[in-house]
């Protein structure tokens, strides 16, 4: 079970870090508000 949890957690961490990095750039390029 720990292996499955780790396998799921790693991509989620990468996606979270990627979205946190790109969100300011994306919001600056696409000012919807």
Ordered list of secondary-structure elements with their pairings:
Layout: H1 2-29
Account of the 3D structure:
- The chain is an all-alpha fold and 33 residues long.
- Helix content is 85%, strand content 0%.
- The chain has one helix and no strands.
- The protein is rod-shaped and about 45 Å long.
- The termini are far apart.
- The relative contact order is 0.11.
- The mean pLDDT is 79.
In DSSP terms, counting alpha (H) and pi (I) runs of 4 or more, how many helices? 1
Give the strand tally.
0
Structural class: mainly alpha
Report the principal-axis shape: rod-shaped
Distance between the first and last residues' Cα:
43 Å
Which percent band covers the strand fraction? under 5%
List the uncertain runs.
none
Notable features of this structure?
single chain; 33 residues; mainly alpha; 1 helix; 0% strand; rod-shaped
Short overview:
This protein is an all-alpha fold. It has one helix at residues 2-29.
């Amino acid at each position: 079970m720990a292996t499955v949890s780790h396998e799921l957690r790693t991509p989620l961490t990468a996606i979270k870090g990627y979205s946190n990095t790109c969100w300011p750039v994306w919001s600056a390029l696409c000012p919807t508000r």
